[in-house]
Amino acid sequence: NSYGTVTKVAAGGQMVGVAFASGSGDYAEYLPKLNPLQEMEAGQIVGIQQGKISFNTADADNLFVISTQPIVLGNEPEENKDHYEKAAFLGQVPVWVQGPVQAGDFILPSGNFDGFGIAIHQEKASAADLANLVGIAWESQEEEDLVLVNVAVGISNGVAQVSKQLDHRLTQLEDDIVEMELE
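^ that's the sequence the OP posted. Answer follows.
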């Protein structure tokens, strides 16, 4: 059917699990909005502070993207469902980003508390950027305008890569300082 399929998974004649297949691409949970009347749209970036989400991403405990179509959706509220939004925790999520964007770019909040993101090349990322990492773009968009980009959230090794680059630069600076002191 159009919602997905459930398949039994076997290995070596043994039942080992169940696979659920769907066109949807992320795991999300309902999270309460700081302002229950705040309108949020799929693909917008939100921050969570004290257990509630808003467009305020500064000093957020975590960053999420409003899910377009989750394959798994948890924490369904029993009432006042419109006071909550589906926030993607893991997977492929379309995100509104001010272009252009190259596949592999880090996606960060714009800093304007508008729900939109910006792209930064991994090699140009600072340690402060890592704290604001929403995900990594999996596609390129050449347009300068606001574009919807497929982003991997919660499954990135980009932080490790940038940490290695920053560590290398720090080691080089330390070596340069020692060399200057010896002169």
